[in-house]
Amino acid sequence: MLDMILAWAVIFLPIALSIIFIFVPARLEDEKAHLKWRHWLVVFGILFGALAYWQQSHAALSASRDREDAITKTSENVSARVSESVSKSVAKSVGEQYTQTINDLQGKIGALEAQLQTQGKKVDVIGKSNIVTGKNPIRVEVTNPTLAASTGEPALSLHASSMSTTPETKYGQHATQIILTTNKRMNGAHLTIICKDKLNRGDAWISGTTYMMGGGQLVDEHTFQVDVGSPDWSPEFPLVVRFHHDVDFLGNCTITPR
Is residue 205 part of a domain? Predict the structure, then answer.
């Protein structure tokens, strides 16, 4: 409101002063009256100059305030938009990472469940095998019984037992699984198995473990060779060998550590 009053005053005061001079009769003025008019003109000029300066200063101050308010509001709007955008981006990123983490965890849990089921089956096989029941023993021949004689440790003792298991018919009509235990921790597992009957396929693994380096292979139709570098065959982790064959019952096999 004050800005509007000052603006109108700066415009109309000079006009009013001009009109006053029009109606003042110059000839009827005496010298004293004319001097008074000069004094009033000087005072009016000073007042008008001060009024104009005040109006200009006030207008500049108002413009500066308006500019600062505009900058502040613009900054607030930009900050609010940026904050909203960042919040949405962070929420989206966190949500994607959370989803990916959950999916990864579910995959790992599924893999662990599969491993536990596999190990449980292997333990169940060992529990039902002839190594527990004592049926159908397989002859074990230790060709180097003096491995520990020089150190005073107990001599190496191996035990084996077999049981029939479900075959993969593409490899043979029947399958036999042999559980081998030892009283000592071996350096991996290295042995040779020679069977009387023909062998179609052989597999070997350390039971109760989740990884293995090496395995086994058929040397010929009657000889199977086990070479496992890791983990070690030990009392806690027996060696399991599975043979596929076409005869109803696998005959005697000779097992020789290497």
Answer: yes
**How far is 1 from 127, CA to CA, in rounded Å?**
100
SS3 216: strand
Residue 243 located in a structural domain: yes
Predicted pLDDT of residue 134 = 47
**Are the beta carbons of 130 and 136 closer than 8 angstroms?**
yes
pLDDT at residue 133 in the model: 47
Note whether 6 and 54 are within 8 A (CB): yes
- Whether the per-residue pLDDT at 171 is higher than 80: the answer is yes
Pairing of strands 201-206, 213-218: unpaired
Percent of the chain with pLDDT over 90: 27
Residue 20's closest CA among 47, 5, 36, 41? 41
User: What is the DSSP code string of 223-244?
Assistant: EEEEEEEES---SSS-EEEEEE
pLDDT band at 1; cut points 50, 70, 90:
low
For the chain, the domain total comes to: 1
Name the residue range of residue 186's domain.
131-257
